[in-house]
Amino acid sequence: MKKTLTWLHPLDMALLLMLLEAGTFFFVGFLQLYASFHFLVTGFLAGVAGTVLALGVWHIFGGKIRGNYPDAFTLSHINVAYASVANGIFLSVLFFVEDVVSALTAIPYIGTAAFGFGATVIAVLFLLIIYNLQPWKLHVTIGVSHKIASVRVVSVALIAGLYEAIILPLMLAHFSLSLPALMTFALAGIVSGFIGGMAGTVVFNYLACLLRPWIELQ
């Protein structure tokens, strides 16, 4: 049954996104510094490794996502293997789209945010259309195990773009600091993921009634 996600707990989302951004961005930095892979391969490997690390820590420390769907729920487990491969594919596609739309960074004042929003919306649209059509689904635990059968593509893509529009400028600002390279990558992920996750979720909660992002659980 399709139900609309109407509210998410900002702190829960901030902590999860902090771990995901820190993990993936650390491995992006590591691979860029110590390997010579094509950027698409770097995106995939960083997405897989970073997600395994992030969700491993999240599960060990009892991470959860609380929200309304439209009734109250608590999500307590995300399938690590599926989420890791999915995030690896997402980062590869995102890096490719970013390479194509890099001209957006030239927009005065809002170039970085526009770049993050535009590239993420395109990448998520493409991947969610495929996700809804293919048979292999992400399993999560909300009381009992469910699979996410389908999602409202446009709404979820716009929400993902909104998060990235907040996170990317915060992330890039850290490269003006005089810190060791890997520390900079990790710190950028931690700070941007937490602040962006908190702010993005507050905005999502305000816009949810307009976007109506339904999710079908089975």
Outline the fold blueprint.
Layout: E1 2-4, E2 7-8, H1 10-34, H2 39-60, E3 65-68, E4 72-75, E5 77-78, H3 80-100, H4 111-133, E6 139-142, E7 144-151, H5 153-173, H6 181-211, E8 214-217
Antiparallel strand pairs: 1-8, 2-3, 3-4, 5-6, 6-7, 7-8
Helix pairs in contact: 1-2, 1-6, 2-3, 3-4, 4-5, 5-6
Short description:
By secondary structure, the chain is of the alpha+beta class. The chain has helices at 10-34, 39-60, 80-100, 111-133, 153-173, 181-211; strands spanning 2-4, 7-8, 65-68, 72-75, 77-78, 139-142, 144-151, 214-217. The chain has a five-stranded antiparallel beta sheet. Strands 2-3-4 form a three-stranded antiparallel beta sheet.
What does this structure look like?
The structure is a single chain. This protein has one domain. It is 66% helix and 14% strand. The protein contains 6 helices and 8 strands, in the order ββααβββααββααβ. It has helices at 10-34, 39-60, 80-100, 111-133, 153-173, 181-211, and strands spanning 2-4, 7-8, 65-68, 72-75, 77-78, 139-142, 144-151, 214-217. It has a 5-stranded antiparallel beta sheet with strand order 1-8-7-6-5. The protein has a 3-stranded antiparallel beta sheet with strand order 2-3-4. Helix 3 (80-100) packs across helix 4.
Primary descriptors:
alpha+beta, five-stranded antiparallel beta sheet, globular, three-stranded antiparallel beta sheet, 218 residues, 6 helices, 8 strands
